[in-house]
Amino acid sequence: MLTYIKESIEELRTNITLPTKAEASNLMVIVAVFSILFALATWGVDSLFSSLIKIYFEKLIN
Description:
There is one protein chain. This protein is mainly alpha-helical. It has a domain at 19-61. The chain contains 2 helices and no strands. It has helices spanning 2-15, 21-61. It is elongated, with a radius of gyration of 24 Å. One of its GO terms (cellular component) is membrane.
């Protein structure tokens, strides 16, 4: 287990490169836009299913 931890730390020190501030900002904007789009899509599907279920049960009761 100790060997694994030492090798992991060494790999983090030698093989990982962090993005620049400009790249990180661009990626943050992309993630925010896709998050908003995904939330809107989820809301739309939820609203559609809610309406369909409401119609189904109204017809079932009447």
